[in-house]
Design goal:
It is elongated and about 45 Å long. With about 170 residues, it is of the alpha+beta class. The longest helix is centred in the C-terminal third of the chain and has 25 residues. The chain has two domains: about 60 residues; about 90 residues, Glutaredoxin. The two termini are about 20 Å apart. The protein is built from seven helices and five strands.
Length: about 170
């Protein structure tokens, strides 16, 4: 018998709350677990997390919408974020942004048609002395130049191709 996604999600959230604790300090770790497994944090997930932690779901939503690394909607497999602080701007951010758009064929705020990449702005990556800074999922790249963009994206394209090949082999 197939278990509905919402039931699996509820069971997973209960497990993560039990592991991290049933108080406010567990909110972000639980949200990260949900996103890691399900690719996004749905309204239903926010409701269950709120119920489990004794937090109003509106507060949970506020946290999800505040942090750029948490997502309510499906994005690309690789979330590419370019820092848009003044220090990265002064270090050549605009040229890097244009190169990213050209390489991916999308603008900021968009996802490639194949679902591989999303392109977003980040308000600060904390790498002001090493800009322009770029974050691809949890991988940080510093002193990014337009010339480095191709190689950075190629790493992740190759990673995706290897994962697809492995999935085919397993079936």
């Amino acid at each position: 018998m197939m278990v509905p996604v919402q039931e699996r999600l509820r069971v997973d959230i209960e497990r993560w709350v039990a592991k991290n604790g049933q108080d406010r300090s567990s909110l972000i770790p639980v949200l990260q677990e949900v996103q890691k497994k399900y690719g996004r944090i749905s309204e239903y997930a926010m409701q269950v997390i709120g119920d489990q932690l004794g937090i109003h779901p509106v507060e949970v939503h506020g946290v999800v919408s505040f942090y750029s690394f948490l997502k309510e909607s499906h994005k690309g497999r690789f979330d590419v974020r370019l820092c848009r602080t003044i220090s990265c701007d002064m270090a050549g951010r605009d040229r890097v942004a244009r190169q990213l758009e050209n390489e991916l064929g999308i603008g900021f705020g968009e996802t490639t048609p194949d679902g591989r990449f999303s392109l977003e702005w980040a308000n600060c990556l904390g790498m002001c002395d090493q800009g322009p800074a770029l974050l691809v999922n949890e991988h940080v790249f510093t002193r990014v130049t337009p010339e480095k963009v191709h190689d950075i994206l190629a790493q992740f394209k190759k990673m995706m191709d290897v994962n697809v090949f492995q999935q085919v082999e397993e079936h």
